[in-house]
Amino acid sequence: MSIKINATIREDQGKGASRRLRHNEQIPAIIYGAGKAPSLVTLGLHAMTHLLEDEEVYTSVLDLSVDDKVEPVIIKDLQRHPAKNLITHVDFLRVDMKKEIVTNIPLHFIGEDDNAAMRLGAILNQFVTAIEVSCLPANLPNAIEVDISNLKMGEHISLTGINMPEGVIITALTHGDIETYDQNVVAVQEPKLMTEEAAVEATEVEGEEGAEAEDTKADEAKGDSDA
């Protein structure tokens, strides 16, 4: 099922023009890539906000209709208002359906309810929540599932342990030395181990703060002595 977004050509540029658009409940946007000149367009605020409630929109090839001319794009960047949950600008990247694209895809961890170790109180530690992949636009997945149902206490899954969809490649594993880039994605750990790690980190922070305080006292004492 294709996802369509309607847009219109935008002639005005600059902060003032963008401010007027937002005041009229419209969003300034830009389309670039595929060897073509960038195009400035305008989107409807309410339609785009509603569309972005579906997380698949962020990782789908979209049909962007500009004055009845449709071209495939992906959302490359979103800007939001720092205080309000409002979209202020959208960057679209044109897609050549015959050429591979590189983008980030979220990981969905499944099987937690079926994991025996977690039913006994183990904790799931997620090191990575999204990975960069390369594939043809037609093969672009909305998410990549990582099954942790059979993961035992102390075991982990790394990048090479993920079952990837056909035609989709993890870019980190294309750099030659796979072992160097094969980072852990998720692990099942004992709660005690997690607590001990947190305690060690807290102790290190307290030690650093204490050392800084002692240095400050020493500097103050030196200043009094010099006076």
From TrEMBL:
Q: What top-level branch of life does the organism fall under?
A: Bacteria
Query: Which residue stretches does the UniProt record annotate as biased composition, category Basic and acidic residues?
Result: 214-227
Any single GO molecular-function term of the entry would be: 5S rRNA binding
Which GO terms of the cellular component aspect does the record hold?
A: cytosolic large ribosomal subunit
One GO biological-process annotation of the entry reads: translation
Q: Which Pfam families match?
A: Ribosomal_L25p (PF01386), Ribosomal_TL5_C (PF14693)
Record has Ribosomal protein as a keyword: yes
Among CDD domains, the record links this protein to:
Ribosomal_L25_TL5_CTC
Region (Disordered) residue ranges read 199-227
In this chain, composition skew of type Acidic residues spans 203-213
Keywords (A to Z) from UniProt: Ribonucleoprotein, Ribosomal protein, RNA-binding, rRNA-binding
Domain named Large ribosomal subunit protein bL25 beta: residues = 101-192
| Domain Large ribosomal subunit protein bL25 L25, residue spans | 5-92
Q: Which Gene3D superfamilies match?
A: Ribosomal protein L25, beta domain, Ribosomal Protein L25, Chain P
Q: Which InterPro entries match?
A: Rbsml_bL25/Gln-tRNA_synth_N (IPR020056), Ribosomal_bL25/Gln-tRNA_synth (IPR011035), Ribosomal_bL25_b-dom (IPR020057), Ribosomal_bL25_C (IPR037121), Ribosomal_bL25_long (IPR001021), Ribosomal_bL25_short (IPR020055), Ribosomal_L25_dom (IPR029751), Ribosomal_uL5_bac-type (IPR020930)
Q: Return the similarity comment.
A: Belongs to the bacterial ribosomal protein bL25 family. CTC subfamily.
The annotated subunit structure for this chain is: Part of the 50S ribosomal subunit; part of the 5S rRNA/L5/L18/L25 subcomplex. Contacts the 5S rRNA. Binds to the 5S rRNA independently of L5 and L18.
Function per UniProt: This is one of the proteins that binds to the 5S RNA in the ribosome where it forms part of the central protuberance.
Q: What is this protein's record name?
A: Large ribosomal subunit protein bL25
Source organism phylogeny: Bacteria, Pseudomonadati, Pseudomonadota, Gammaproteobacteria, sulfur-oxidizing symbionts
GN (gene name) = rplY
